[in-house]
Design goal:
Two copies of one chain form a homodimer.
Chain A (H helix, E strand, L loop, with lengths): L1 H29 L2 E2 H8 L3 H14 L2 E7 L8 E6 L5 E7 L3 E8 L4 E8 L7 H16 L7 E8 L2 E3 L4 E5 L4 E5 H9 L5 E5 H12 L8 E5 L5 E6 L2 E2 L30 H5 L1 H7 L7 H13 L3 H25 L3 E4 L1 H21 L2 H4 L3 E4 L6 H16 L1 H10 L8
Parallel strand pairs in A: 4-7, 7-11, 12-15, 15-16
Antiparallel strand pairs in A: 1-3, 2-3, 4-5, 5-6, 8-9, 9-10, 12-13, 13-14
């Protein structure tokens, strides 16, 4: 009989954890919700919501407002809000031509953020970490935020999730760089550091609170110099065995074509990367964002060469996207980074290629849209990554935090 | 207080269902297990396993053997087995050049099966359904199986999972064929009919009990005339919005290449399909499996032309697989159907292309292996699909069945 009671207790604890997580996730993604809305969102009963919200109030994660009449029949329903200062994370981004840092609270509120442009270069991981430290100091100076529970890092390279090693980042010249370890040491942070690919994290952010918030099967594609991809399958990020998944820029679309930075030939990146766009329009291959902006101004002004280069880009974008539509049957394709800025120029070409090349059934179900979060999508995704342990198990993080007050900050 | 008790009851029921499912799935995939092994597999306590197994015995789904000494310290542990006759499913397959039917019990045991070759042709869905009915009669004649709980159908086309409409099946000439509806009517079956793509189901079967049983990130690729694909991401089948996902044969690998049956140009299928292999070796494009077998005999005999065609096939297989490795970071690539039979001929070429073209980090983690289940993989996957409701919720299916004895059979 004792065994049965213990077991019942264990089972209930498992369910309680899942239910607390469901409530915190709903509030995190949607903002304040009435108890009635939480009932509708979670499928839990009214009494369960009352009890669980009570638990979350006791943990200091949520607050309840006064009951508000909703203009609908029945009792007024109290509004439940996350305390966005109850836990914060540090989000960092290492892009090709900029570094960024932000302090983000529960609920995704950005309390402070900064970004510095830098020449697209091949700085060592140590130099980049030193630059990031300055940004962290800047972004935290003069602030009194809630307890820090994690650090998320978006990096323009493919990353082993388990330890934050950047396996390869051709656009910044890194190979097997132990970024997670270096950052942990440099920050002296007694909280976990999570490193991931920037496009994977942008996809996560767009799925949580951006262009893809209503879709569970999503392809995000972005890129400045190169091409990045992040994929959501059935509501969950596609990671693969080690977190390397999503590298759509290295699908072979033209095996007799140009050499790719990755060592292969004719990867999609060689046709839709920045270099191909610029060269076809008569710009230097390494002209960067300024050259792309100039090219777009030329196109608006009617330049045949600029327009032909954009047409060519749209053609190759459509070819590759048609293949991804066939493989993933996605609801949404979100164009981020440079592709987001180009979307209005290449939209019709992309749609025509999808009509011509994708299988009719999945093609009919997909839409192509530009990013809603813009340039900050990877940084916001890094924050989401660092918040994930709390979202998955609200009690454990709060418990761990309060058990060790030293975790409330870092040097 | 009443609310709390009701809620506690609901929570416990949710967990009980999940736990029953975990036990039945473990037995279904692995065969008989001792109670101790079930403890290790499920993470549940010994007392929970005892109670839950008791429930499953009461439902008639499992039996317990006498306690057997295991040669290890501690009490002997009783062996728990599924009653493979407690529930059976009917599995059907519509391939390009054959039809098949099987009666499969819980645990995946095949009680009876039959396959008939047929000319690769463009029979109407009604004609195919009529032929399937004859196979069903044949496979059931003289048998006294347990209650039928579902029908699974593997078809060589892309399928809307929700209603079993075959959106397009170019290799048998179907378009928007309501196969699920027709089969339900023709079979007069009071059990659900589940239709899905044959490669998706082959991937499911290889993941459950075949070459990919130990891997959670898997790409299965097969094909006779065309090319089929089925993908497992994080342990779950990649379906996409409507179930159309996995069509890797229609990735664009050569956009200046040949016209594809799907209407696009240069799909992977145009380079690795049967026709390309045969034509390059001097065989008629529609020579079918006999011609492929003759080509392989020629290659074994030293024919330069046959060997060059296989080399070419391996080259293009490797190119596309490199792209899939970059996108999915899979643990395993399983070659089924014709690719399984060809594996030993093209293995070295594929591996060399992966070395040359895939990103180093995901490439290092992937292996390419031939199918373990062979030609019957789609049929076994169809059985798995039909068994899924019982595996997910053992109580519900048993309850529904016993509430309506008429469901024990069909005309």
């Amino acid at each position: 009989v004792t065994g049965r009671l213990v077991e019942l207790g264990q089972r209930s604890e498992t369910v309680r954890r899942a239910n607390l997580s469901a409530i915190v996730r709903a509030l995190h993604v949607s903002g304040p919700l009435s108890r009635s809305e939480l009932v509708a969102r979670t499928g839990l009963t009214r009494s369960a919501i009352r009890d669980l919200v009570g638990d979350l109030v006791a943990m200091g994660l949520v607050t309840e407002g006064a009951a508000a009449a909703l203009g609908t029949p029945g009792r007024p329903s109290r509004v439940v809000s996350l305390d966005t200062h109850a836990a914060v994370v540090l989000a960092l981004e290492i892009a090709v031509d900029s570094l960024a840092a932000a302090i983000v609270g529960l609920g995704g509120e950005v309390f402070a953020s900064t970004r510095v442009e830098r020449p697209a270069g091949h700085d060592s991981p140590d130099a980049v970490v030193a630059d990031l430290l300055r940004l962290v100091t800047e972004v935290r100076t003069g602030r009194e935020d809630g307890p820090l529970i994690g650090i998320g890092v978006a990096v323009v390279g493919i990353v082993r999730r388990s330890d934050g090693v950047v396996s390869t980042a051709p656009n910044i010249g890194w190979r097997d760089a132990p970024l997670g370890e270096r950052l942990t040491a440099a920050l002296g942070a007694p909280v976990p550091v999570f490193v991931a690919n920037e496009a994977d994290l942008a996809a996560l952010a767009e799925h949580r609170r951006g262009a893809a918030a209503a879709a569970d099967d999503v392809i995000f594609i972005s890129g400045e110099v190169g091409v990045g991809g992040g994929i959501i399958v059935g509501g969950a990020p596609l990671l693969g065995v080690a977190g390397y998944g999503g590298e759509v820029g290295h699908l072979p679309v033209n095996p007799e074509g140009r050499a790719c930075r990755c060592g292969s030939i004719g990867c999609w990146e060689t046709e839709i990367g920045e270099e191909a766009l610029l060269v076809a329009a008569g710009y230097p291959p390494d002209g960067g964002r300024e050259a792309v902006d100039a090219l777009l101004r030329e196109a608006i002004g009617g330049s045949v060469r600029a327009r032909a280069s954009l047409e060519r880009l749209g053609h190759w974008l459509g070819i590759g996207l048609a293949g991804l539509v066939n493989v993933f049957n996605p609801r949404l394709i979100v164009l981020g980074g440079r592709f987001g800025r180009l979307h209005s120029f290449v939209r019709r070409t992309i749609e025509a290629e999808l009509d011509a090349r994708a299988l009719a059934a999945p093609r009919a179900l997909v839409s192509v849209v530009p990013t809603a979060l813009g340039e900050d999508a990877p940084l916001l995704g890094a924050a989401e990554l660092a918040l994930e342990p709390l979202l998955a198990d609200p009690g454990s993080v709060v418990g761990a935090r309060s058990a060790d007050p030293a975790q409330a900050g870092f040097r």
